[in-house]
Design brief:
- The complex is a heterodimer of chains A (153) and B (319).
- Chain A has 153 residues and is of the alpha+beta class.
- Chain A is built from 5 helices and 5 strands, in the order E-E-H-E-E-E-H-H-H-H.
- Chain B has 319 residues and is of the alpha+beta class.
- Classes of the chains: A alpha+beta (153), B alpha+beta (319).
- Chains A and B meet through strand 4, helix 3 and helix 4 of A and strand 1, helix 2 and helix 6 of B.
Chain lengths: 153, 319
């Protein structure tokens, strides 16, 4: 089936099997491998993207259901000339990762957290980010990066 | 995932028409449940009817009723400027459900129609709810999540919706559309009265929950909600409670109380409610009322902590 979806501002036309998840379409068809496959069952947050501006788990979305919608992935955050998004920069500044596998999902959730106005307290950041697991346990640095990025905004 | 045909619809009528022609169809909304079940082969419909493009996401205060479209996202309901001031327990229950991404994706109707499950539902071992007749792994396994009220011999799974517990106390009504037209039912009656692993809900094939109507009375403003779980966030309830008391002249004049995490359905504690009336609003009263609710409880060894947790949760929401 044919799906027309906007990904990182670009109109894409995908020809895919109805069973394809958004995660598989992004990684395997569009070669946007920044979005990671962790648990593939909605529990780890590694595949978090923005769907019409709201956080969504790409592993639980059928690509077919994104027809006419807009997806933003980690690749779509950087500005002109590859300038890092303020949240990406804050993650670098605060050393908010170790292995980096969960980082794209963490950053997408963090962008949504700040956008939703939920980055004002440590407790609120903690709750908002609770769907994004980090097995290296960089949680304190992740929270610090989000708080700093929210402050700069 | 087994192959399926995928159809998008833009109206409830179109959805119902398709579903009534096809016995092997399932509706898809937020996808946070169904996509997992498809991947694991727990369900294998031949037709998926994606209702998410339907305009059923409205949220409005309509006189003395809060009307929420069945496809309103959990996040949209919790964030609505009039929901928190007028029905605080609803916003609180939603905010403690799942993670922000899942709350953005998941819909009100879908939340109520989550599968009753325990940790074994998705495991490889026997599970009467996933695979009727295969047996129950919880009987000799991890029983921390087990139901203690109204469980059937073959299944001790609990219903996971916090929202359903609050809507039960609020005596909210569901509007459903089906082949036979429109009807309404209480949230309580969405769930089978007797636990049966083969029956998830009381909807008729093809029916679609198009809306939820919450009465904006005293219950809406006074009901409190508490959820107790192993993790501080992103976890199902071990025990959840919603309820309120009306106290007149030092005694309880009216009470409503419901629990989550203890049964295959949101459990309206009518025995406890009756026990509360006419008594003083003190911890002993609540403990005795909850004990009376538990008179017929069947408690597996691994769930023996739940009665005490129910007393504490009830005390928190009522006193």
């Amino acid at each position: 089936m044919v799906v027309r979806v906007t990904v990182n501002g670009r109109a894409e036309v995908l020809d895919l099997d109805a069973r394809t998840t958004l995660l598989a379409a992004l990684r395997d068809q569009l070669r946007l491998t920044g979005t990671k496959e962790g648990c593939d069952r909605g529990e780890c947050g590694a595949c978090t993207v923005l769907l019409d501006g709201r956080p969504a788990l790409a592993c639980l979305v059928l690509a077919a259901a994104t027809d006419g919608r807009a997806v933003t992935t980690i690749e779509g955050l950087a500005g002109a000339g590859g300038a890092l998004h303020p949240v990406q920069q804050a993650f670098v500044d605060h050393d908010a990762l170790q292995c980096g596998f969960c980082t794209p999902g963490q950053i997408m959730s963090a962008v949504a957290c700040i956008e939703a106005g939920k980055a004002s307290t440590d407790a609120s950041i903690r709750e908002w980010m609770s769907g994004n697991l980090c097995r290296c346990a960089a949680y304190p640095q992740i929270r610090a990066a989000i708080a700093a990025a929210a402050d700069r905004r | 995932m087994r192959p399926f045909e995928y159809r998008r619809v833009t109206t409830a009528a179109e959805a119902i028409g398709l579903a009534s022609e096809r016995r092997d169809a399932m509706y898809l909304a937020g996808g946070t449940e169904l996509v997992n079940w498809l991947k694991q082969g727990i369900v294998a419909p031949a037709l998926i009817i994606d209702v998410s493009p339907c305009a059923l996401g409205g949220i409005a205060m309509d006189g003395d009723t809060l009307s929420v479209g069945g496809l309103a996202s959990l996040a949209a309901v919790a964030e609505h400027p009039e929901v928190r001031p007028r029905v605080p327990a609803l916003a609180e229950a939603i905010e403690q459900a799942a993670s922000p991404a899942i709350r953005s994706m998941g819909t009100i109707a879908g939340n109520l129609l989550q599968r009753t499950r325990c940790p074994y539902f998705r495991s490889a071992g026997p599970c009467n709810r996933r695979d009727p007749g295969s047996g129950c792994s919880a009987g000799a396994g991890d029983q921390r999540a087990a139901a203690i009220l109204g469980a059937s011999p073959g299944c001790v799974a609990t219903h996971p919706s916090d929202l359903a517990v609050v809507l039960t106390v609020l005596e909210a009504e569901l509007v459903v559309h089906g082949e036979a037209g429109r009807r309404s039912l209480t949230v309580e009656s969405l769930y089978p009265a007797m636990a049966d692993p083969a029956v998830e809900h009381t909807l008729i094939r093809g029916e679609l929950i198009t809306g939820v109507r919450v009465p904006l009375g005293r219950a809406a403003s006074q009901t409190r909600f508490v959820k107790i779980r192993d993790r501080a966030s992103f976890d199902f309830a071990l025990v959840a409670a919603a309820g309120y008391l009306i106290v007149e002249d030092g005694v309880i004049a009216d009470a409503r109380l419901a629990f989550g995490g203890v049964a295959a359905r949101p459990w309206r504690a009518r025995t406890a409610e009756a026990q509360l009336i006419g008594r003083r609003p003190v911890p002993d009263t609540v403990a005795q009322a909850v004990a009376s609710e538990l008179a017929g409880a069947m408690i597996l060894p691994g769930a023996r902590f739940k009665p005490q947790l129910m007393v504490r949760a009830a005390t928190k929401v009522l006193l």
